[in-house]
Structures are given as structure tokens and as C-alpha cells.
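Handout, section B. The chain below has 215 residues.
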Amino acid sequence: MMAGGAFFDLTIDGKGAHGGRPENSVDPVLVASHITTALQSIVSRNLKATEPLVISITQIHSGDAYNVIPQSAVMRGTVRAFSNDTLGMAEKRMLEISQNVAAAFGASVTMDFQIKFLPLVNSEREAEFAADTAAELVGEENMDRNGALIMASEDFSYMLEKCPGAYINIGNGGGHSDCEVHNPEYDFNDNILALGASYYARLVERWLVKKEAFN
């Protein structure tokens, strides 16, 4: 249902110099810019077009003066994929590409790559049970049992790795709050709190009635 996710730090070590004399530097900002572009080739050239992968550079930090080419730069970001094999491939290629791009400019790179979330996989029986419960509350016409895969990640995936279960989403509604999370305009719809609580209460009621079928 949801992607596995990793966070990474790429630390570029160059050579600082005066901003007016760039020929004496190994500019880590320039190196970071080329690495940012080159990493996208992993998605387009190292993976089947039918296999989803996202590599997002979300931070580049370097320097603190207008007239100084800094000594180092740090790039940070996230990788999302629906299989552990794809995450492993991305890690390997990111290190190879970053090190070789940096070397071409005379710089060096170290990488810290940490898998924070596993791919979230619902078990079929429990997912059907959860969906049936929700449909009792809102009607089948308001249920999407086969929604698109989600590139966000969730640590509930570790629970599902150990025991059968299901993770579902509740709609936030349209209007002003209808936008991506991590967006400053996002506004949680408090009106769905009662619906969410009712869903969990009904889930327990149905489970107590039908639990023998799950043993």
C-alpha cells in the first residue's frame, strides 16, 4: 500500500577559496549540483519503467559568506520504493554515482544511507475485513478498496512484517484543507474525528463477533 523509505546524507569535501578566485577551489556547491542531476539517472536508467522509485534531494547546505567558496557541502534527502531490492539498488548506485561525479571535480564524498520504513503490505484477509467495516459506516459507494499505491511511508510497516493486519486511510474532505501534507496550507478536518473513532469501535465489535473465523 505504501512505500519503504530511506533517509540519506551525502557529505562532499572540496577545497575552499575566495569567491573571486574559483580556479583555486574545488567547489562543493558545483559538485552538489551535478550530483543532484546525476542521481535522477538511477530512476530513468537503472530501473524498469514499471517499477516505481523516487529519489528526492530535499536539502543542500554549504557556506555562510557571499564571497567565499566553502570547503564542504551536505546534501540530504529521501528515497522511496515498493521493494527492499529497489531500495538496495538505489543505495548502491547513489554511492557509486556520487563518488565518481565528485572525483571528476577533484572532490570526495561519503554517504550515510538509513532505511527508516519498510514497504507497507496489507494482508488480504485483514484488509477485506477493515474495508467491509468501513463500508458499513460510510457505504460502499464511499469506499475505494483498490486505491493507488502511495509513495509516502509509515512505520506501521514493521508491525505488518510481524503479524497480519491492514492500514487504511480516512478521507480528509475537499475544500481549503484538500492539499498535500507537509504543505503550509494543510488543515486537518476535525469533523472526521468522530467518524474515525466510530470506525475503530465498529472494528472491535465485528472482530469480537467474527474472531473465531480468524483463529
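Note. The domain at 4-117 is CATH 3.30.70.360 (Alpha-Beta Plaits). Compare this with the example in section A.
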